[in-house]
Write a structure and sequence with these properties.
The complex is a heterodimer of chains A (310) and B (532). By secondary structure, chain A is mostly helical. Chain A is built from 13 helices and no strands. Chain A starts with 6 loop residues before the first helix and ends in a 19-residue tail after the last helix. The longest helix of chain B has 17 residues. The N terminus and C terminus of chain B are likely disordered. Chain B has 19 helices and 22 strands. The chains are: A mainly alpha (310), B alpha/beta (532).
Chain lengths: 310, 532
């Protein structure tokens, strides 16, 4: 049994965790920026799909996963313009707009994909940075240190976001817009501009999450490929209370639950494959049940801001 | 008042007019605000003070009229413009973010990428010295007492080196001791050459702190007492002049008006009560509540309210008043202790059970918890008797009975409404409060908990509400009066208990002058004890 848990298997396990977790982390970080500013974007499931599709197409056309990621980010930002205009500028209900974005993103990407690539599915070229020295280590070498350079750049952006939220005046404005927008307004800040920047960044990160899924995790696009990942990201956002480190930890739980399928099957655990499919969702539900009481959302979440209204 | 350009160092309002649907909030108001002076703005609720302030703060735009800063017409079209002009406002409702630290609150709205904490702490140090207050920069704003929060608000308003500081009803929730501290701070700020606008509806404060006074009524500037004039007046003369402008002929006697406007020290108005001779109606023994998020819970509360007694509960807002009121009403369960009503243990009874025994509750959240804005006045009046005969029969509503009851209560409590079918949300705050009182005090009420019953109401309704409560007590009913207005407590209560951080820290017999000071001492003493 133990020889089955060889270095190769462990490396594959680790790789699977990384590529499954990354899209979720990115989506949850994007959602965190939005929620901290008071915008609950229920549309990120759709935004992820738009990012996944536009990233996939860009990567196919240009042959570069890097440009594919940029395409995914652009797609996410464009999809979120709907939230920007309808909610922040016009003050319509966030929940309605969010659900509309989800449905639209699902529908549009499925139709476009089937129309353009349905008959001859193509794969995106892979990408790997082989880090000299480190990549020769057992287990972590072939998994962690042969990831695409995109992975390392995205890790860096997570640190940047954590820093922006915690240490800058912009971060303070974002949090104030979610806690008490009238205070930000009275202090001479601009609630609309602050929330707009948050929603655009939300689109960029969620789009990047989608693109990571299509370009790097699977190397292809399939309709509805997110399968609820956007909604799981919303759950993780609420549990993490605005802290990027917590997002990484809780997302890893999900990633492990997804990735554990292969090693478990290899060591001979004989349960139906359906159980493994369910596992990530069971983990999310258990996490929710255990930690739901400690979830906290900003008080102004979901409320459009109108100056002078009480 | 001349309409020509004003002298330098002055912010002048000229013919400012602002109308909202159905009401002209500011009607051609002109006034000059001079540096180094405290300009008191007096007027009832609804006189247009708040609108004028929000125009100066850039929150609202006037329909017509100009604002001159040092003689130059200057539009203030956003809060940012006001901040840039050096106009700082301490709003009546806190603008601090409770989840932020003091320093984060102060730095909010700063430009530049990185937060400069060193500079901010230095500025806070300067301002604390000026205000004569010690403020911990790393404390959460939500954890501070109300007086300290206000000092932070003032520091925030002066953060960018103010030219004008506006204080909107700053004393309404402070203890007498905290008011003295505030007056000292204001004097310091004035000495720095800043202009201060001090808004109040209490005459005493206007005379004590103000260099000049402007009185608003019905959106109009109805009187101004200049610096020399005010200095030459005795307190009594100033009062008479202000009262005449404030009320016109509305109020029958000057004495009555003076009392309404808080000109004189409050004295007890309810009749003597031999409490020992009366039966205890409500008895709380060791009552505690648990777990309602950010709310302060009550701990180990024991008190009794007797037949015909008004027991006041004084305390700074948010010190467990809501929990106490709700645990008595049955809306919150008691985790510990017992509640007895007329000798019967009602600890396990729900809201309706207690309601039917005659135990009633008038909430302070009259707009949301107290009434259903979208329903008719009539429905709101029978809201707590849903399903009961004669208004409901076999589950079906009996509109005739409901309307008849509504008409009776509307007449008895003088509720001003176009009809009993009007939506409650369209009425004024005063009339909504009357709906609540009418609903709770009818049909066999023997005891009522009222939380901040006159908060935000106009003076005439305030008087009426207080009258209703004293009449109820005179008729043998008992009242548990929770209020943050010390004058109100002194006027109405037989005894006053002080609540602090969810505990009753002492009880004062209300028998003559000095009660307010004693209560104030208990309040501050308790707070200092907690934070020491």
């Amino acid at each position: 049994m133990s020889e089955l848990l060889s270095a190769t298997v462990l490396a594959a396990f680790l790789t699977a965790i990384i590529v499954q977790t990354m899209p979720l982390i990115l989506a949850a970080v994007g959602e965190t920026i939005g929620e901290q500013s008071g915008v609950l974007n229920l549309g990120i499931e759709g935004v992820m799909l738009v990012g996944a599709y536009s990233g996939y197409v860009t990567a196919l056309v240009t042959g570069s996963p890097w440009l594919g990621m940029l395409g995914g980010i652009a797609g996410g930002v464009v999809a979120n313009l709907l939230m920007l205009v309808l909610n922040i500028w016009l003050g319509l209900n966030q929940i309605v707009i969010g659900l509309a974005i989800t449905l639209m993103g699902e529908g549009i990407t499925a139709v476009l994909y089937l129309q353009n690539y349905g008959k001859s599915p193509q794969s995106v070229p892979g990408d790997a940075w082989v880090i000299p020295g480190l990549s020769d280590l057992p287990v972590v070498g072939p998994s962690l240190f042969r990831q695409s350079g995109i992975f390392w750049v995205l890790l860096l952006t997570l640190v940047v976001v954590a820093f922006l939220l915690a240490r800058t005046n912009w971060g303070l404005s974002i949090r104030a817009a979610g806690q008490k927008p009238s205070s930000l307004d009275a202090a001479g800040g601009n609630v609309v501009r602050t929330r707009s920047s948050a929603v655009l960044l939300n689109g960029a990160f969620v789009g990047a999450g989608g693109a990571f899924l299509s370009v790097l995790t699977t190397g292809t696009f399939t309709p509805f490929m997110t399968g609820g990942l956007g909604f799981i990201a919303i759950v993780i956002t609420m549990l993490s209370r605005g802290r990027v480190a917590w997002i990484v930890v809780t997302s890893l739980l999900y990633g492990i639950a997804v990735a554990i399928k292969n090693p478990l099957q290899l060591i001979g655990v004989t349960v139906p494959a359906d159980v493994f499919q369910m596992l990530p969702f069971i983990v999310v539900m258990l996490t929710l049940i255990i930690f739901a009481r400690s979830s906290m959302v900003p008080p102004a979440l979901g409320a459009p801001y109108t100056r002078g209204a009480r | 008042m001349s309409s020509t350009a004003a002298a330098p160092g002055v912010i002048s309002l000229r013919e400012i007019t602002k109308a909202f649907p159905g009401v002209v909030a500011n009607d051609r108001i002109s006034l000059d605000i001079v540096g180094g002076q405290v300009h008191c703005l007096l007027g009832e609720n609804g006189a247009g003070k708040s609108t004028l302030i929000s125009i100066l703060a850039g929150m609202q735009q006037p329909d017509s009229g100009t604002i001159l800063v040092d003689g130059v017409p200057t539009p203030i079209n956003s809060p940012k413009a006001a901040v840039d002009l050096g106009i700082g406002v301490v709003h009546q409702h806190s603008t601090l973010v409770p989840a932020f630290t003091v320093l984060e609150n102060l730095m909010l709205g700063e430009t530049g990428v990185l937060r400069n904490e060193t500079r901010a702490k230095a500025r806070l140090g300067e301002l604390s010295e000026l205000l004569g207050a010690r403020i911990d920069p790393d404390a959460l704003a939500g954890d501070l007492g109300l007086g300290q929060q206000q000092q932070v608000e003032i520091a925030k308003a002066m953060w960018k080196g103010s030219r004008l500081l506006i204080l909107d009803e700053p004393t309404s929730m402070l203890t007498p001791q905290a008011i003295e501290k505030l007056a000292a701070s204001v004097a310091q700020i004035k000495a720095q050459g800043l202009a201060v606008v001090f808004i109040t509806h209490k005459l005493r404060e206007a005379y004590q702190m103000g260099d000049c006074v402007t009185i608003l009524r019905g959106g109009k500037n109805v009187g101004h007492i200049g610096t020399e004039e005010l200095a030459s007046y005795s307190e009594a003369q100033a009062q008479r002049a202000i009262l005449a402008a404030m009320f016109g002929d509305d109020v029958a006697t000057t004495a009555e008006a003076a009392e309404l406007a808080g000109a004189t020290e409050a004295v007890r108005e309810v009749d003597d009560l031999e409490i020992g001779a009366k039966r205890a109606r409500l008895e709380l023994t060791g009552v505690a509540t648990r777990g309602h998020g950010h709310d302060v819970d009550v701990r180990n509360v024991s008190l009794s309210v007797h037949e015909g007694e008004i027991l006041g509960i004084a305390g700074i807002d948010g010190h467990g008043q809501a929990a106490l009121a709700q645990v008595v009403a049955g809306q919150r369960s008691a985790a510990e202790g017992t509640i007895r009503f007329d000798g019967e243990d009602v600890t396990r009874r729900g809201v309706r059970g207690r309601q039917q025994l005659g135990l009633r509750y008038v909430t302070d959240d009259r707009l949301h918890e107290g009434t259903v804005a979208g329903m008719s006045v009539a429905m709101n009046l029978v809201l707590k008797r849903i399903g009961q005969a004669p208004f409901w029969k076999i589950g079906q509503i009996n509109r005739k009975a409901v309307d008849a009851e509504a008409e009776r209560l509307i007449a008895e409590y003088a509720i001003k409404t176009p009809s009993s079918g009007t939506r409650a949300g369209t009425l004024s705050g005063g009339n909504i409060q009357k709906i609540l009182l009418a609903r709770e005090l009818t049909d066999g009420a023997r005891f009522v908990v009222v939380n901040k019953p006159t908060y935000g109401l106009d003076l005439k309704t305030v008087k009426l509400v207080r009258q209703i409560l004293t009449d109820f007590a005179a008729g043998g009913g008992s009242v548990l009066l929770l209020s943050t207005d010390l004058d109100e407590l002194v006027e109405l209560s037989h005894r006053i208990a002080v609540i602090s951080d969810g505990e009753i820290v002492g009880t004062v017999q209300n028998d003559g002058r000095g009660t307010a000071e004693k209560v104030g001492q208990l309040m501050t003493g308790a707070i200092e004890g907690v934070h020491a």
